[in-house]
Design goal:
elongated
């Protein structure tokens, strides 16, 4: 199996020897996109996530199985 340094050397060599502009542009796109954050969250989304984490930390949640059971029970009463 290739080590990280071997892969890097191989890629560098292949890039240096390539004259295929489409190939090089595709690599540039891959590299650029890997350096960006995968998802940009709004402040509101970040606050909601933090709020949810705090609720979990404080025990303010219900287990999924229990919730499903309660919902099934509630639905059979309707």
């Amino acid at each position: 199996m290739d080590t990280t340094s071997q892969i890097k050397k191989n890629l560098i060599s292949r890039i240096q020897n390539s004259n295929d502009i489409n190939f090089l542009k595709a690599l540039q796109t891959i590299i650029d996109s890997s350096e960006e954050a995968l998802i940009q969250l709004t402040q509101e989304q970040q606050s909601s996530i933090e709020n949810g984490r705090n609720q979990i930390k404080n025990g303010d949640f219900i287990e999924n199985d229990k919730l499903i059971s309660e919902l099934k029970e509630w639905l059979t009463k309707k």
